[in-house]
Design goal:
Elements (H helix, E strand, L loop, with lengths): L1 H6 L3 H23 L82 E11 L5 E6 L2 E7 L4 E7 L5 E2 L13 E6 L2 E10 L5 E11 L4 E11 L1
Antiparallel strand pairs: 1-9, 2-3, 3-4, 4-6, 5-7, 7-8, 8-9
Length: 227
């Protein structure tokens, strides 16, 4: 009897054996059922090489858990973003450059002060006919006149103290139309401009042709309207 007592396991040994049987039983249970859950996996031990390519899907990720630090820089492209989902609040406005055609808008007090382009289509005027309207802007009216010896572009105004590019004194509503450019024979392109005290004005180039054979004059060009 005394020999049996001497061979009895100590309490520490009994606890160790119970722990061993429990751990072996857990692993055996996992293998027996064909499933391994998180209890059988050591924390921080599963690596990328343990995952099959293209097998992690949306349903495997917790909502709102993927963050910017989880995505490699410069790898998200336009094709990865749904159409019409990026809004102004998503853009840092200070990083945007000015649109070239909007450069004049910085100094404009209203939309009327921004320049616009007026194209003058080819207009034919018979010799001796009444002056033909080419363009209007603010107080100014631009006409083409065909005389016996020259084609002429004139401007009239409804605003006093208006000035023109021909170097003549200021003119107003009571004055006759002022000649901006003329062509005696052949064809040439000449600059034209006028400005009113209100800030309305225009600058541009007008082509004039005096065709003495056909007894006609032709006009065309473009004007930058301002004010």
């Amino acid at each position: 009897m005394s020999s049996l007592l001497r061979r009895r396991p100590s309490p520490a040994m009994i606890v160790a054996l119970i722990a061993l049987f429990a751990s072996l039983g857990g692993v055996s249970y996992g293998f027996a059922t064909g499933t391994i859950d998180s209890r059988e996996i050591k924390n921080n031990s599963v690596r990328s090489s343990d995952l099959r390519n293209n097998e992690i899907r949306t349903r495997d990720l917790r909502n709102n858990e993927v963050r910017g630090i989880d995505i490699r820089n410069s790898t998200v492209q336009g094709r990865d973003i749904a159409l019409n989902t990026v809004t102004g609040t998503d853009v840092n406005e200070s990083t945007l450059q000015q649109v070239p055609s909007a450069a004049q808008a910085d100094s404009a007090t209203n939309a009327d002060s921004v320049s616009s382009l007026k194209i003058l289509p080819v207009t034919t005027v018979a010799e001796g006919a009444q002056p033909t309207l080419l363009a209007t802007h603010g107080p100014f009216t631009v006409r083409g006149t065909c005389g016996a010896t020259a084609a002429e572009v004139t401007v009239s105004t409804t605003e006093s103290d208006s000035v023109a590019s021909n170097g003549q004194p200021p003119f107003g509503p009571a004055d006759s139309p002022v000649a901006l450019a003329s062509q005696n024979s052949g064809y040439s392109v000449k600059p034209v401009a006028a400005l009113a005290p209100s800030g309305k004005g225009f600058t541009g180039d007008v082509g004039l042709q005096h065709d003495s054979t056909g007894q006609v004059c032709r006009f065309h060009g473009d004007l930058a309207l301002q004010g």
